[in-house]
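Hi there,

I know you've been waiting on this one. I reran it after we fixed the sequence typo, so this is the corrected version. Both the input and the resulting structure follow.
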Amino acid sequence: MTMFLKPGESEDQHGEQPIFTTKAHVFQIDPKTKKNWIPASSSAVLVSYYFDGSRNSYRIISVEGSKAIINSTITSNMTFTKTSQKFGQWSDPRANTVYGLGFGTEADLAQFVEKFREVKELTRQLEANTNGSTSDEPDPSSPAAVISQMRSLHARTSSMSSVGQSENDRRSLTNSLPVSESQVKYENDRLKIALAQSSANAKKWEIELQTLKNNNARLTAALQESTANVEEWKKQLAAYKEESARLKKKVLEIEQGGQGVGGDTKVLEEQVVELSARLQAVEEDKQSKAKEIDSLSSRLQDMTLKESQSIQLADKIKILENENKQLKDQVKDLEIEKDMLEHKMSRETDDMTAVQQQIQNKMSELTTLQGKMSNILKQSADDNILENSVL
């Protein structure tokens, strides 16, 4: 239900009145790229139009938890653009951002667009009335009228003194705001530096982990191949040992029966020499294979150590990813808080400027009335002197 303040009613009586409420997913434009949308809400939240009776202005407000994710004052120059069947956006120069709303249905978007147009037209009318209104002051034709004007001016001046006090309060609040903003900026920059360092470390360790994984895969393949070779070499070594034992036995038999052999001695000696050479070759091959087995065992131990280091690095990367996520959330929260502080400071500055302008107008009015009163009193005194002279 749409609610408006009646003439003469103040914010103390009604405050800001909600005139329309719907649900939507809230987005803000990326301040760096000015192209991508950044989700400002984790789910669909309430988005409401409010009327501020004290300022005769309309605002779009949305709150998630304890954070205000939309606080946009509507002006007659704003335009709500429907970019798809369920999505629309508008630009807020004061907040220096572009808001986007994603609705659940096309009907919700259509109602929001219609309400935006209605509120924009009401804002235009309020601005026209404010710019076109003039105060009709009576023409003082008698001292009584001037005295009445002076009394009303005195009452307004008294009220302005209270306004001046509230202005001082606002000024003190405004002076305290830059300190909070500077603290938020410092904390934001510090978290950004920590986030950048953490991201750099995570990237470095990811590269190192990938290198270790590649080495692990290569060593695993080499180990499997070496294991197959070791089994083959063991079979060959066993065959060589059997053949060596057989040849030694044959050599002994030849040496024991060498005298009875007769003419075949030379042939047997040649066979003995050949078998001895083959036996020596087998022994050398055996020693070579034993060294290679020792080398493969050492490589296997190194690979096991690398695998353990790889697991530790993977755990570190998970921890860093969690820290990165937390830092990003903190940076996002601080940026929202910073935007809210800047918007609040802008509003307080506008209020203070308006109050100063009112004070200047009232002082000018006081000076004008004093001049008029002096002229009237002087004219009254001249009339009295003239009447006395006639009498």
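Quick highlight: Residues 52 and 121 are 16 Å apart (CA to CA).

Best,
R. S.
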